[in-house]
From TrEMBL:
Residues 28-227 form the Fumarylacetoacetase-like C-terminal domain. Keywords: Hydrolase, Metal-binding, Pyruvate. GO terms for molecular function: acetylpyruvate hydrolase activity; fumarylpyruvate hydrolase activity; metal ion binding. The lineage of its organism: Bacteria, Pseudomonadati, Pseudomonadota, Alphaproteobacteria, Rhodobacterales. This is Fumarylpyruvate hydrolase. Pfam families: FAA_hydrolase. It is an enzyme of class 3 (hydrolase). Signal peptide: none annotated. The keyword Magnesium does not apply. Its EC number is 3.7.1.20. It comes from Roseivivax jejudonensis. SUPFAM superfamilies: FAH. The keyword DNA damage does not apply.
Length: 228
């Protein structure tokens, strides 16, 4: 083992449903505008166009059940998404082979500092300040595909303080999970521990301290996140 000149950063590891082991996170890829209705509400054409991705940091994923309202913003939005967890990877993965690389699935929120993201868009700058901040991706447990299969359909719902704000179905994704994996592998070498957040349906909106978010996906259970 080499001698390091600073403390070694901890590995982000997420709980796995029904198991004592944890899933170690390597990279986090997020696909944008992957539901037609959400593309429309964000002011874009819903036609199928080449997918685009941005990234969050591994330690942005947070299974604690709380979301601290971040600084330097007054407009934080919820985006409910399916998370895909990879057990293997590679380059130029064929679509037909893509699901062989999936370890499991889970629930995730892509919390977004919408005002800061909007400022970056206007200036043609990267979005990280609006997307990749601390604890910006609350997540539920990882559900192994060996237990839940590979969900290609199922209701996705998010309630804010008991009121339904987002609802859709996994079958409404413009780019399906195998296609996302294959496309990403053309531009990045995927590896075990990679996570893909697969986009959100319409209905995104603001949260404030004291709010409670309840998210469910058929077959993957539910999670509750409190905004603090």
């Amino acid at each position: 083992m080499p001698d390091y000149v600073t403390d070694v950063p901890p590995v982000t590891a997420l709980p796995v449903a029904g198991q004592q082991g944890a899933f170690p996170v390597r990279r986090v890829y997020c696909i944008g505008r992957n539901y037609a209705a959400h593309a429309v509400e964000m002011g874009h054409d819903p036609d199928r166009e080449p997918p685009f991705f941005f990234q969050k940091n591994p330690n942005n994923l947070d299974p604690s059940g709380t979301f601290p309202y971040p600084e330097h913003t007054s407009d934080v939005h919820h985006e409910a998404e399916l998370a895909v967890y990879l057990k293997s990877g590679g380059k130029s993965i064929p679509v037909d082979d893509a699901l062989e690389h999936v370890y499991g699935y889970g629930l995730s929120l892509d919390m977004t500092r919408r005002d800061l993201q909007g400022e970056m868009k206007k200036m043609g700058r990267p979005w990280e300040i609006g997307k990749a901040f601390e604890r910006s991706a609350p997540v539920g447990p990882v559900h192994p595909a060996a237990d839940v299969g590979h969900p290609s359909e199922g209701r996705l719902e998010l309630k804010l303080n008991g009121d339904v704000k987002q609802e859709g179905d996994l079958n409404q994704m413009i780019w399906k999970v195998p296609e996302m994996i294959s496309y990403l592998s053309e531009y990045f070498e995927l590896a075990p521990g990679d996570v893909i957040l697969s986009g959100t349906p319409s209905g995104v909106g603001p949260v404030k301290p004291g709010d409670t978010l309840e998210m469910t996906i058929d077959g993957l259970g539910s999670m509750t996140v409190t905004v603090t």
